[in-house]
Amino acid sequence: MRFYKFKPIYQERVWGGRGLSEKLGRSLPEGGPIGESWEIVDRPEAQSIVDGGPADGKTIRALIETDAMNVMGPNWEAQTHFPILVKWLDCQERLSLQVHPPANIAPELGGEPKTENWYVAECEADAALLVGLKDGVTRDEFDSALRNNELEPLVQSIPTQKGLSMFVPSGRIHAIDGGNLILEIQQNSDTTYRVYDWGRIGLDGKPRQIHVEESLKSIDFNDFEPKPILPEPGAQNLVESPVFNLEKRDIAAGESLSFNGGEEPRLVGVVSGRLIDSADGAAIEKADNVLLPYASDFSFTAESDTVVVITSGFGG
């Protein structure tokens, strides 16, 4: 059993554009602005489809239902959905100021918890991330600023740089500025509450829905000025959480990247460069995100200097 690559599912977003064509070398569908490429997803409304190999054309749901032990591990229930959603985000304009509900609040609101991480693959010189409240901001100050359309000064702004990583647990207020290309690893959830949208008009010509009540119930008002992980050469642990773990590795041309089967399933996203599977010569190209199943050993060789983000800690 080799790795699984999936066909991307492109999503129109008012803040997107056509940049994934040039930045990732993708052929985009005709139509409006594309903001997201869903690389790996197992949801009722969106199913990743295997692209190539013996399982070509199978959905990720069918893959797990028919071979859960080999794909996910011996303790994985076949009916349990794949727990991670992987996206590329092409942020041409600023996203809404938003929050995802924590696990203890989500059921009350009819949503799903959503912890995520952003890895900045490319960014423009003036791009930023809005993450967490500025130190000392109170709930009353936030409420007043919301009524007066003056929220931005209360939220921490972090200048982005290539290779920066930002963890965004459920409950953390956030927005992504325009000018960022981001690899997002998140819980399998599509619940987002917009607290403010900068007066924007949606793709349908109407103001987008705002979720003030849900947002105020979800925001952690003790979450002040969280820090990103800045890029360093070599291997970096980016996230250790109950939901998933992330690691970044720099692999020089000719060096190898290996994983033992029987440990856990993993995801490998190639941010730059190219990996070659030593077993059969199959390539994992720049911008690819692949699933390495639980049961298989893997050894890759970097064809050129390569940066990968590895997701673990989610399997059975």
Automatic annotation (TrEMBL):
Lineage: Bacteria, Pseudomonadati, Verrucomicrobiota, Opitutia, Puniceicoccales
Cofactor: Zn(2+)
Annotated GO biological process: carbohydrate metabolic process
Catalytic center residues: R194
Residues engaged in binding Zn(2+): H100, E116, H174
UniProt keyword terms in alphabetical order: Isomerase, Metal-binding, Zinc
InterPro entries from the UniProt entry: Carb_Metab_Reg_Kinase/Isom, Man6P_isomerase_Firm_short, PMI_typeI_cat, RmlC-like_jellyroll, RmlC_Cupin_sf
Source taxon at top rank: Bacteria
Record note on cofactor: Binds 1 zinc ion per subunit.
Pfam families the UniProt entry points to: PMI_typeI_cat
A single MF term (Gene Ontology): mannose-6-phosphate isomerase activity
Ranges for domain Phosphomannose isomerase type I catalytic: 4-106
Record-given protein name: Type I phosphomannose isomerase catalytic subunit
